[in-house]
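Fig. S4 source data, part A: sequence.
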Amino acid sequence: MSRSLLERAIILVIDSLGIGAMPDADAYGDTGSHTLDNTVRETGIRLPNLTRLGIGCIEGVSSVPAVKAPLACYGRMEEASPGKDTTTGHWEIGGIVLDRAFATFPQGFPEEIMERFTEETGYGYLWAKPASGTEIIQRLGCEHLRTGKPIVYTSADSVFQIAAHEEVIPPDELYEICRKARRFLYDYNIGRVIARPFVGKPGGFRRTSRRKDFSVEPPGETLLDRLKKRGIPVVGIGKIGDIFVHRGLTVEIHTENNTRGMDRTIDAMRRYREGLIFTNLVDFDMLYGHRNNVSGYARALEEVDRRLPDLMGLVQERDIFILTADHGCDPTTPSTDHSREYVPLLVYGKGIKRGVDLGTRSTFADIAQTLGEVFGIEKFNTGRSFLKEII
């Protein structure tokens, strides 16, 4: 496939928009999860632009009408890697399939890890067990103010999260603590160290947008790495840079929320006429899925749906636009953690066929393999290109 047929790719990740439990979901405690269907049914929202693209035509989706002539090719993807976290999902989209899951700590971090944390950072700590991030700062925020000790917590995902009030430990200092923790936590196969700054007074503590992720490095070359090596522009928007450890990007744009994420994606489409634009919209997961805020999740879906025509209006003849997700996080279930779900695959472009059923893909890496073929780079060891099905 010649690069001349398609010159620009836009990937929009609606973080955590799962579309139904995968066959092995029971092993993860996620039987019955369906982030999209359960949210739409509980709130009654309508998503006209996602509907027009064909999300309701995807197998397993029943909350959105299936249109007769969808604008996009459509399908769903199964995660081949073990796990259900942000890093694993994005890496697989980028062509890396893991053979073992990152470590999780449902009973809390062992004493050995916390002793090393104190030794390496010079700080004590509070908690060091699983917790809701918003709840734990309310519960331990006053003790943190009194002692100056950061609050350490985890979840069902492979994360080592460190929360600190910005007036006690300024964000730059918190980031340095995270960097020191990241260096020794490689030994324990922990996927991400996350800085969680917060502000406010007792009874009204709130997290800020100065969150920062410190991810483990991908174990091989990703789509981003290979494109950059070939001199092809790669623009990462949102937390893409953090997830890929700032590798493979020629431009990195941080955003505060979904609205800014869509704004910056549209700006990038106006500015960069070739290469890859890769965006993550994190509010779905961070603000709503993990907090079981069904109405908030629904409003966020409506907002992105309203903005889709602005983005689609900038898709040119030699563009391929892919809308997908990285895992589920069903806000209607008792769990506040990610869910092991299929993710949507919607592929749109003016030079691309409409209404092709791409079926159930066996790995997210089909995206990397397809875009690798688009840009004429080396094939990945996993994934199957769907380019010939859509051109």
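Fig. S4 source data, part B ends here. The first helix runs from residue 35 to 43.
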